[in-house]
């Protein structure tokens, strides 16, 4: 295998291990020049080995044929630390308000609003009006998808959150039994 094929295979392996990563993340982690990364990712995409989606300034890459569209949307969100923290807080808490999220994540309300708006637009979370407050919730099926993707592709984050998540699902199960 020549050096060019080796670079393409290394990039493919990286995309398979880090689905939903964006171009600059690939460049930074692989320590390869931007032009080389772009060339090989484009080549892999034309060969049908990977797919990509563009949102705003970011282009995200995925192994071909592995994920449904909603899973790709979730992976795109999980690649961004702040959005991931917000999403995990929503998973952990039941129907938090924007103020709850601001107090937990400790960034500005404007930033929270932007990230939450993006997740609402991607249909990852739902915004519910509750008087003068907006509350955010996750469909139970989406919560399971998020947890599965975290466990598979973000093991260090999964380890950190797993005990909290187990407790949350146990409480949901107990609530159902009471009903």
Question: How would you portray this structure in words?
Answer:
The chain is 65% helix and 13% strand. It contains nine helices and five strands, in the order αβααββααααββαα. It has two domains: 3-66, Arc Repressor Mutant, subunit A (Orthogonal Bundle), CATH 1.10.10; 72-178, Arc Repressor Mutant, subunit A. It is elongated. The protein has helices at residues 3-17, 23-30, 34-46, 69-78, 81-92, 98-105, 109-121, 140-153, 155-178, and strands at residues 21-22, 50-55, 58-63, 126-130, 133-137. The relative contact order is 0.10. By secondary structure, the chain is α+β, with helices and mostly antiparallel strands. The protein has a three-stranded antiparallel sheet, with helices on both faces.
